[in-house]
TrEMBL record:
It comes from Litoreibacter janthinus. Its EC number is 5.1.3.13. Homodimer. Pfam families: dTDP_sugar_isom (PF00908). The record marks 138 as: Participates in a stacking interaction with the thymidine ring of dTDP-4-oxo-6-deoxyglucose. It comes from the Bacteria. This is dTDP-4-dehydrorhamnose 3,5-epimerase.
C-alpha cells in the first residue's frame, strides 16, 4: 500500500496494491494490520455507502462532535469525487485549512479523514458510489454541517456553482465560525 501525506499531514491518501491478471485485479482494500503500520490503529464499527445520481452532488461539510467523533476511510467504487477535509481542531496551527483529493474507482485510492476534520465531497461523474468506514456509530444528535461555500474556508470544489446539488440539511448549514462557537460552549455532544 502506498501512503502519501497531504498538505494537512494527518489526512492521508492511501493506494492499496492491485494484483492484476487476465481476469482483472485483486486488491486488499482494508487490512487493519497494514493500516496500523502506517499509524491508523483504529477499530472501525460502521460501513457506509452513498450513491449520487448526478454529477455535482455535494455532500458536506459534515462532522460528529465528541464523544461521537468519527475517523473515516473513504473510497469510490464507481465514478470519481473530489473529497475534501478541513482541519477544525481548535488548537491546530492548520485551523481552517483544507485539502482536496480526487478519488476514483479507476485509481482505487482512498483518503483517511481523522476526527477533528470536516468532511465532504462533490461528485465528478454521474452514478457515483462512495463507501467509507467510520470509527464511531452514527449519532444524529452530534451531527453538524458547515456551509460548503463558507468564504472563510474558500474551498475550490472545481465544479461550477450552478451545477451543485445539495440536501436540504446542507443548504441550511452553519458557518464555520458558528460551528466553532457551538463546539466551544459544548452545545453539541
Ligand atoms: C450519515 C448517516 C445517515 N443516515 C441517514 C440519515 C438520513 O435519513 C439519510 C441521509 O443522511 P445524510 O443526508 O446525512 O447523508 P450524507 O449527506 O451522505 O452524509 C454523509 O456525508 C459525508 C460527507 C460524510 O462524511 C458522512 O459522515 C455523512 O455525514 O441517511 C443513517 O441512517 N446513518 C448514517 O450514518
Amino acid at each position: 500500500m502506498q501512503v502519501t501525506a497531504t498538505a494537512l499531514p494527518e489526512v492521508l491518501e492511501l493506494i492499496p496494491k492491485r494484483v492484476a491478471d487476465a481476469r482483472g485485479y485483486f486488491s486488499e482494500t482494508w487490512n487493519s494490520k497494514s493500516l496500523a503500520q502506517v499509524g491508523i490503529d483504529l477499530s472501525f464499527c460502521q460501513d457506509n455507502e452513498s450513491f449520487s445520481a448526478r454529477k455535482g452532488t455535494l455532500r458536506g461539510l459534515h462532522i460528529q462532535a465528541p464523544p461521537n467523533a468519527q475517523d473515516k476511510l473513504v473510497r469510490v467504487v464507481a465514478g470519481a469525487i473530489l473529497d475534501v477535509a478541513v482541519d477544525i481542531r481548535e488548537s491546530s496551527a492548520n485551523y481552517g485549512k483544507w485539502v482536496g483529493v480526487e478519488l476514483s474507482a479507476a485509481k482505487g485510492n482512498q483518503i483517511f479523514v481523522p476526527q477533528g476534520f470536516l468532511h465532504g465531497f462533490v461528485t465528478l461523474t454521474p452514478d457515483t458510489h462512495v463507501i467509507y468506514k467510520c470509527s464511531a456509530f452514527y449519532a444524529p444528535q452530534s451531527e453538524l454541517s458547515v456551509r460548503w461555500d463558507d468564504p472563510v474556508l474558500g474551498i475550490d470544489w472545481g465544479v461550477q456553482t450552478d451545477q451543485i446539488i445539495l440536501s436540504r440539511k446542507d443548504e441550511q448549514a452553519l458557518s464555520v465560525s458558528e460551528l466553532g462557537a457551538l463546539l466551544k460552549c459544548g452545545a453539541v455532544a
